[in-house]
Amino acid sequence: MIKIIRARDYDDMSRKAANIISAQVILKPDCVLGLATGTTPIGTYEQLIDWYKKGDIDFSEVRSYNLDEYRGLSHDDPQSYHFFMNDKFFDHININPANVHVPDGANDDADAACAEYDKMVEEAGFCDLQLLGIGRNGHIGFNEPDDVFSKGTHCVDLTQSTIEANSRLFEHEEDVPRQAYTMGVQTIMNARMILVVANGENKAQAVHDMCFGPVTPSCPASILQLHPNVVVVADEEALSLCKDC
Ligand code: GLP
Prior knowledge:
The chain contains 7 helices and 10 strands. The protein is an alpha/beta fold. Bound molecules: 2-amino-2-deoxy-6-O-phosphono-alpha-D-glucopyranose. 2-amino-2-deoxy-6-O-phosphono-alpha-D-glucopyranose binds next to helix 5.
C-alpha cells in the first residue's frame, strides 16, 4: 500500500522525510537503513545532520546499505556514490564507518561483487527502512525499465536517458560510467518500510505511474504498489499528475 504525503516544496519534503528516518532510528537505534544517492535526498541528509548536531539523533549503532554504485569507480573517486555518501552524510554524523556498505564498484568481477553485496544485505536481515529516489523513467536504484523485474544485486547497462540525467554531476557526458551495480527490485521489496522522495515537475509522470499505473517492469517503481508499507513524500510539482490524492 502506498501512502502519499504532500509537501509544499523541496525543504518541506526533506524535513518530512528526515522526520520519518529519524523516528526509525529513535525506535530502533541499531536499525538497518537502505540509503540512496541522487540530488533528491540531499536535503533529507542535511536535515538529519542538523538534528544529529543538536543531539537529537544518534547513528552510532545504525547499519547502512546503499542501493547502488557505478561500476569501475572506487570508493575514493569523487564521482563515486560512496564518495557522495561520505561527503553528503556519513562524514557529518557518528555512524561507524565499519557499518557503512556500498556495492564495490572497484571490483570488476561483477558476479562476485554483486553476490558479496547480496550476502551482506541478507545477513543484516534486509533493511528496516529503505530510502528511494525515483528516476524520470521510473527507475529505482539503477533498476532500469525492462521486460522483467530484477531480483538480487546485479550489473546493469544504464539507459541513455539515465546517462543524460546523471551527466549533470560530471564534467562531460562521456565521463558517466555506462554500467552500475544495483540492489535488485526484490532486495528493495524485502525492506520492511520504503520511503520514496520526489520533487519537481520532471518526476510527475514517474510518480503518477509508480502510484497509479499498471504494475509493470517498464516502470520498475510500480512494483511498490505491491509492498505493504510504502510512504511517498513528494512536493506539489511531483504530484501534479496525481490530482485526487
Ligand atoms: C540515480 C540513482 C537513483 C536516483 C535517481 C534520481 O540514477 N541511481 O537512486 O533515485 O538517480 O536522481 P535525482 O534524485 O538526482 O533525480
